[in-house]
Amino acid sequence: MDEQGCPRCKTTKYRNPSLKLMVNVCGHTLCESCVELLFVRGAGNCHECDTPLRKSNFRVQLFDDPAVDKEVEIRKKVLKIYNKREDDFPSLSEYNDFLEEIEEIVFNLTNNVDLENTKRKMELYQKDNKEVIQKNKIKLTREQEELEEALEVERQENEQRRLLEQKEEQLQQMMKRKNKQALLDELESSSLPASLLLAQHKDRSTQLEMQLEKPKPVKPVTFSTGIKMGQHISLAPIQKLEETLYEYQPLQVETYGPPVPELESLGRLGIIFGSQHFSISSCSK
Description:
The chain is mainly alpha-helical and 285 residues long. 52% of the residues lie in helices and 5% in strands. The strands form two sheets. Strands 2-1-5 form a three-stranded antiparallel sheet. Helix 5 (130-189) runs antiparallel to helix 6 (194-212). It starts with 20 loop residues before the first strand and ends with a helix. Mean pLDDT is 81; it is low at 277-285.
C-alpha cells in the first residue's frame, strides 16, 4: 500500500505524523498547508485535474483512498434528491430498480462516466418529483429530531447518574474520615487499652462498609436503539435438508384374534345387513 502524503509538496505522514490531508469534490488530495497556500482567495483550480474548486469545500480525508471520500460525498448529495423509501413504491421490484438507478448514478459521477446525461437525468427527476422529495425531507428531519431528543434524554440520564455516584463517593470518603478522626480522639482521651479501641474501630468500620456498600450496576442488555446486545443476524442461506420421500403404506389392524373374513365371503353367507337374503319370512321361521 502506498504511503499517504501530499502529492504537491511530497510531505508524507511518515515524516510528519501530524499531517492533515484534505480532499475536495474532485477527489484529489492536498495537505492543509497547500490548501491555505493555493486557495488564499477562497477559490482556485485543482492541481491535478484543473477543476474549479472552493476552499470551503475542502474536508479532512477520512479514508486511505481519496476516491472513497469522493464517493461518500457524492452519495450524500444523490440521496438528498433520490430520497424515496420502500413505502413509496407499489412493489419490491420497483424499489429495487430505484436503488439500482441510484447506484448507477453514483458510479457515473464518481468515475466521470457520462456526466452530462447523468446530471441532466438528476435535474429532470428533481423537477418531476419535487413534492415527494420535500415530503420525505421533512419526514427525515422529523425522525432525526426525535433521535436527537432520545439521545439528549439518554445523555441527561447518564449525567444525573454520574453526579449521583460522585455524591455517594464523596459521602463515603467523608464518613471514613470522620470514623478515623473519632479513633484518634479516643486514643488521645480515653483510658481504655489501645487494643480494645482498635477492635471497636474495626467493628465500626466493618458496619460502615456494609451500610455504604452499593449494589453493582446492572449490566445493560440492550442498546439505546432497542437492539439487544450480542444479537447477530445470520445472512447465510438456509441449508437444504436431504430427507427421504414419503411412501404410502396401507394400514394394518391387529385384532389379536381369529382372522376377519373378507367382504365377499360375508356376502355369500348372506349375513351382511341390508342384503336381499334378509326378509320377514325368514324371521318368522
